[in-house]
Amino acid sequence: MSRRIYALLLSSAILSCALGAGPGATMTIADEAGSASSGDAELVVGLPQDLDNSLDPYQITAAGTREVLFNVYEGLVKPDTDGNFVDAVASAHEISEDGLTYTFTLRKGVLFHNGDEVTIDDVLYSFDTCAATTTNSAVEAALSDIQDITADGEDVVITLASANSSFLSTVSSVTIVPASYKDQATAPVGTGPFKFDSYSPQDKAVLVRNDDYYGDKPALAKVTCRIFDDANALYTALDSGALDMAFHLTVDQAGSLSNGYEVSEGEMNLVQALYLNNANPPFNDERVRQALCYAVDKDMLLDLTEDGHGAKLGSSVYPSFRKYFAEDLVDAYPYDPAKAAELLQEAGAEGLTFTIKVPSNYTQHVDTANVLVEMFAAAGINAVIEKVEWNSWLENVYKGRDFEATVIGFDAAYLSPDALLQRWVSDNGSNFIGYSSPEYDAAMENAHTSAKDEEQVEAYKEAQKILSDTAANVYLQDLADFVALNPEFTGYEFYPLYAVDFSRIHPAS
């Protein structure tokens, strides 16, 4: 089918969704739009999904929740916009020459949002609790390599069983929380530039400035995050001026804004793919998975969904990881519908039919699924889209593993390739596709035990190649990230991971 027909089909799907959106969402929040005209500026932001049921930093599942609470929680160190790790709750850190000992000096006078001063005991408690309760399998694996963690005066000393050049990134993901506080799930307390104020499920979350912050105080006094379960309603509210800011817009949405908002383009920093349930037929057959890879024209996909923006992917690492990114895998499966049909015949899967479950609140993933359906049809594959609500996707697809295929994007919770690759280890609890490869497990083990940085890089690239060779999933793209901001505000900056830093935003004048 021609590129033009694909485009018409996609445009028709988007238009029909837009026409179905009512004005109600806009009217209910119009009187709450932020203002940059005073020293108590408020920013009103649109969120395309609800927050997690638990706001405990070690229990967060959704990238969107972590993205917002980046402003509330901090570790001993945290990433900056260039991907460097800067001191946060720690005032300084040192790494021994053998890479086994990390020493962090606790910053004096840092206060939790409840007014308590951060102590060494809180740091030790945070590491112990994170290691024991985190839902992030990559963090859990990295922390399991800690041989000893002790207090030495104002210092926290961590000794590893083996050198790990990515361990500082793990430290950044361990949120420091008060040992005596027990309500993190509903009223989180951290040390960040903003304090959690309130949260109403399916409605809004409110953050307020932390006037006791040890660093530069935010210019914004308040950030109100309005929650939408419909992407078109969010866009309508944004274009009407009822919202000051929205991120993760599609290229079409960004290009059709009529309110004069400034639009910035960056990278979304996630791995969008057609994720396949490897544990069940027909996708337990490698040939079937490879057939789907050959049936996708990635260049056309980017043209149709992102107007050529974004970046093609060939495995589970995105370009912002720089030295770890395996660029040679991007075109490992050149578009070849005849090859796809041949592989399906070999596997006895001619006339393949399956369902793609897609979270309805993410326009980009729905658009991608629409294009994939048409591309698969050219190879004799019948794919059907089932749009589901976000909470249903989390419970049934991700946790319940009740799916054949799904289009979604996975981000890195922290700046280490482990954050993206560890989940596909055979016995990993987050391996929701049921992928199993002894060769992959061995490559990941080599990455963890490599003493030299170049050896670790090669091990991670070998792991990515195995994912590609076995067609664990149909890897697609790292989406372009379009962020719209009311011109009354300025200062927004992109991070090399899924995060929005409200502390950098301030009134334009």
Written account of the structure:
A hairpin with a 5-residue loop joins β2 (77-79) and β3. The chain has a 7-stranded mixed β-sheet with strand order 8-9-10-1-11-19-12. The longest helix has 17 residues, at 3-19. 49% of the residues are buried. 31% of the residues lie in helices and 22% in strands. It has 16 helices and 21 strands. The protein is globular. With 509 residues, it is an alpha+beta fold. It has helices spanning 3-19, 24-29, 63-69, 120-133, 137-143, 167-173, 231-240, 251-256, 286-294, 298-306, 337-346, 363-377, 390-399, 418-421, 438-449, 453-469; strands at residues 42-47, 77-79, 85-87, 90-95, 101-106, 146-152, 155-160, 194-200, 204-209, 222-227, 245-249, 262-267, 270-276, 311-312, 353-359, 382-388, 405-411, 473-478, 480-485, 489-490, 506-507.
Give helix % range. 25-40%
Low-pLDDT residue intervals, each spanning 5 or more residues: 1-31
The Cα radius of gyration reads: 23 Å
Q: Tell me the structural class.
A: alpha+beta
- Helix count equals 16
Rough outline: globular
Q: Kindly state the number of beta strands.
A: 21
Strand order of the largest sheet: 8-9-10-1-11-19-12
Strand content: 15-25%
Largest sheet report: 7 strands, mixed
Mean pLDDT: 90
The rounded distance between the terminal residues' Cα atoms is 51 Å
Oligomer: single chain
